[in-house]
Target: Diguanylate cyclase
Amino acid sequence: MKSFIKLLSFLLVCFFASGLYADEGKPLVLVMGEDSYPYQFVDEKGEPHGILIDLWKAWSQQTDTEVVFVSRHWHDSLKQLSQGDADAHVGLAQTSVRSEIFDFAGQISQVRTYLYLHKSLSDRTSFSDLIPYQIGIVSGSSHEAELLALEPRLSFKRYNSRHSLLKGVIEGEVHVFAGMEGYLKDNNLNRQVVSLFPIKNRLLIKESPLHPAVIKSDLKTVDKINLGFAAISSKRFAAIEERWLGINQQKRGITVATTLNIEPFVSLGGDGLPHGLYVDIWHLWSEKTGIPVFFSTGDMNSSLDDVRMGSADVHIGYPESDALKSGLLRSQLLYKVKSRLFSFGHSIDNLDALAGTLIGAVPTSPYLGKLKQAVPNTQLKLYDSVASMIQAAREGHISSFVASSAWTQHYLVLNHAWSEFHQFDDLEFETDIFVLTRPENVGLDKRIKAGFELIGQNELAEIEQKWMLNSKNRVFDVENSRLEFSLPQRDYLASVGVLKVGYLNNWKPMEYADSNGEFSGINSEVVKLISDKLNLKLEAVVYDEWQDLITALLNGDVDIAGSVAETEERKKKLLFSDPYWPSPWALATPIDRVSVFHMQQLAGQRLAIVEGYQLVSDLMSADYGLDLLIVADTRAGLKAVSEGKADVFVEKVINMAAELKQGDYGQLKMSVLADFSDQHSHFGIHPDKAKLVPMINMAIGTVNQQKQQEIYQNWVKQLPLAPKASLAETWWFFICFLTLASIMFLVLFKYRMGQEISKRLVLEDKLNHLANHDSLTQLPNRSLLDDRLEQAVLHHSRDLSAFAVLFVNIGCLKEVNKKQGHKMGDNLLISITQELQQSVRKSDTVARFGADEFVIILNRTKDLDIVCQVAETILTNLAKDLVGDIPAQDVKPSIGIAIYPADGDTAVELLKTADKLMYRAKKSGGNCYKSS
Model:
């Protein structure tokens, strides 16, 4: 009975609505905004489109009423409705001000509005943090009233249209702007906006319902509108929204069907979550679009079925080809997998060596035809998997096989068969990997493509380098990729003329004038790369002093200068590029002094530093208790320490290392300053060239880690080594002299010389040990740890194997030192050191990182489970009563675990990850470990 009543009511509504409009017979004039994509906008031909437009078209069909769309700038659209020149507005947010002018129908859609923050404002997390900044808004939008309700002290810069707002955003006129969620119609513009204003930097303003609006008191039209929309099914509403947004607004994310066990592309980690190259690309897609992704795992067939049946939205990546069709829509080319030939037992020099042999291949491989052409004098034998081909080669059924190079290498290493097979690099095939979705998911297909348009080649290359240890398997060529600019950007580049670049006369290897007076060094090569990418003409201007160069940049005498620190004070007068070069600081101290890694260790000492460095004001404001000695350049700073005029000299690592290499500084040593190890170099840019900044950043984005290494090697190897007389040569000359002077004292002299050499060697050993080991625990200190970490990365990258870094914190040490004295704390540290050493193998490294912190390197670990067992052993061993009056439960060790290369492919990244995970363990109460 109830079902019958509901059906009757629905039919009456439909009949009434249909009849109501049929009787009137005149079209309904609807005014709309012209650039609020994807809700209401006009295309290049002036045709109306968007979610609200399609909803009104459905309303028109439902009510049999003609509708006419009239597009205007947003402010003008409201004005036209208020003057009675339209019957209704297609949809807008209801505010108190608008409610005084218009009446509103029921909600037909909704939109989330955000404040988008420039990437330099990532630390701003509340609306009150944005009071110093003008917020870009479209004049007449609801954003102003909504934001003032949240923070009355905000100020605004108003634009006539969304297009003019975004133009101002790109040109740096505002660092904060208000806008709807979603993406822009212009992919190039969308990419530029997201690169400057990352989705993760946005602040939610409001989730606003969208209502049709009519002129005040036109309640009859309101009733007509409500009746018509009430007759449209919720299923049709959802289909229209998904067509434009790509996702259901209620779902707020997409599910990615994921195939496991195809390392290094996808595998299941020890944490039970998928990891790998494809997974990281999808995480980046999510970061760019703001759309969460959820992974559902399975094998190849079940993951495809998940997409077909609708339990997953997309497939993570599938080798779709003419020979292997899934019946799904190829939405996006995700990657290209390189396949090569692997021979068993011995390497081959050319393909002729394979004549008359059997070669294995998988039947679904798209390159079978090309393989037959490449080796016509062989026979192909097909197998269902790489594992079966490896077994067949071992048993002598085939001489070689062709398969995915990266996956095969990983499989061979994992199964201890790496030495049995040899890769032939000259035979290579590429297999396209596609993101798949259902053919009817047109909106999702567009959204996927738009999201991948936001990802730069440099970002993809960075992910690829993390997972593809063999550079020959990589496909992203950032260095040779062509940058795409909008028409206004191309016009601006053509108008720039000559770009003046300031540099220092003698600051090797970063920048200097060579013997011909030409701009040389690392910065010169980066600037040349930028000028080539942007097609700019350069004029290099040389300066002798750093302060003179900065002054020239501030005055506009030069347009750009490299290696400029981005500080709050300088940001008021200059613009800055993205970071382009690591720029940590180092300390030079006499060789007989204990190595220094933190500024706190220098309290009361004389510190030499180059004039004009921003670090000068940082050190003075931090009140480290230092006596600063200002010097002209790197050489003067090292000389001051050598002559005893300063206790320490601070300088950029790369410049200090270069000068130490060239000069005679055998009595000095260098250590990295941990307090400022994360600093990077930027280009400082005069505000007159503001429009050039985003394009410079695009060019900098093509400089990946490999290119950085090439540039570094190119300039460092050019530095001459200073000639140094060896100790042995000096002694031998002295022996010869004494022999000629008096043969009578030869035996005595040899005896005394032997004693002196022995003493010196013992002293050098002691100094070397002191410089590289902690004096209390005798463990390797941070200096030696850095070296061993770098060596571990190098060796394991060559072997395509994994290792682990454990960051261990002792929670009670500070309390013990405070309550029971430092002697008791030292005894505890010694006991902990012994337990840590007993918990690992002799081939592993246990180092003291800080006062209460240790770092452990576990070499050649097969998987996370083994590392977790070691962590459990450490926790168990430290749960004993180590020192008399200190209960075991008070020790509270916290351990963070990072795995190479999954958690980082450099020493710095691994330490950062392990440190971050250690703090997570510490926040959990200690006595536990955390992994990613």
